[in-house]
Write a structure and sequence with these properties.
By secondary structure, the chain is an alpha/beta fold. Helix content is 29%, strand content 25%. The chain has nine helices and 13 strands. A seven-stranded mixed β-sheet has the order 6-5-4-3-2-1-13. It has a six-stranded mixed β-sheet with strand order 7-8-9-10-11-12. α5 links the parallel β10 and β11. α8 runs parallel beside α9. The chain binds zinc ion (2 copies).
């Protein structure tokens, strides 16, 4: 099992996980052309994908989902709330093979088992995912406003974690965003700051943990060095050992 980020941040997110002949894309917040280019950079063609699993309706995660799925006839999984929100926002969902996700029920796609879990975020029915090939587990957490026991239970015992480190509170407070946006980001349905992400990491069973990746960093309210330092403190490791999935480059393949 292995995974790569095609790009991570408020301008667009997509991640690919692979086991055997199964490859799932997690979110697609890029245009069709951009997604194809980023897949090619990871050595993949659209036809290599078995499906797209979607976390929530925000544009940086969902804008490219239906155009890409329609163009390449790829099935899409999302919660009913996410689908309803996208429909109400005018997304053209016709001719897209859509499967509904129950946020409490794991489902198989080829060689991967997909376990959704609910998170606090200002979307209709947001979930995040743990992907497993039966032997190894990859946990992904972005777009959550605070830690919950359910998040910690879901991510415990993973072999790899991709964790949102959205902002540093001082940079957010002193930064250029309007007060309403600052309050939204820092609120309990907003995004994870470096310290909260590190506290989640510190609370987990890390006995199998091989990879921790910092993701969804704000380019305005955070720096890779601050995110790395926070997660490294939780792991008592060298900050340079923490890779960052960036907006432009994403992250190259990691083997679990
Ligand atoms: Zn996001
Ligand atoms: Zn979001």
């Amino acid at each position: 099992m292995r995974f790569a980020s095609l790009g991570s941040g408020s301008q667009g997110n997509a991640l690919v996980a692979e086991s055997g002949r199964t490859r799932l894309m997690l979110d697609c917040g890029f245009t069709v052309q951009e997604t194809e280019a980023r897949l090619a950079r990871a050595g993949l063609a659209p036809s290599d994908l078995s499906g797209i699993i979607v976390t929530h309706e925000h544009g940086d995660h969902a804008d490219g989902v239906f155009p890409f799925a329609r163009r390449h006839a790829i099935p899409v999984w999302m919660t009913y709330g996410t689908l309803a929100a996208l429909r109400e926002a005018g997304a053209a969902v016709e001719n897209c093979p859509i499967r509904l996700v129950d946020a409490a029920i794991a489902f198989p796609v080829g060689d991967l088992l997909v376990q959704p879990y609910t998170v606090p975020h200002d979307a209709r029915e947001p979930v995040q995912y743990v992907l497993s090939d039966g032997a190894r587990r990859l946990g992904v957490l972005t777009d959550a406003g605070c830690a919950t026991p359910h998040i910690e239970a879901s991510l415990s015992g993973c072999d790899a974690l991709v964790l949102e480190c959205n902002y540093d509170p001082d940079l957010l407070e002193g930064g250029p965003y309007p007060p309403s946006l600052k309050a939204r980001i820092a609120g309990r349905l907003g995004h994870l700051d470096n310290a909260t992400s590190a506290a989640i990491l510190a609370s987990l069973d890390r006995s199998r943990l091989k990879h921790v990746v910092a993701a969804h960093l704000s380019q305005t309210n955070n720096t890779p060095a601050l995110a790395r330092a926070a997660l490294a403190r939780a792991l008592a490791c060298d900050p340079e050992a923490i890779p960052v999935a960036t907006q432009d480059e994403g992250l190259s393949w990691r083997d679990l």
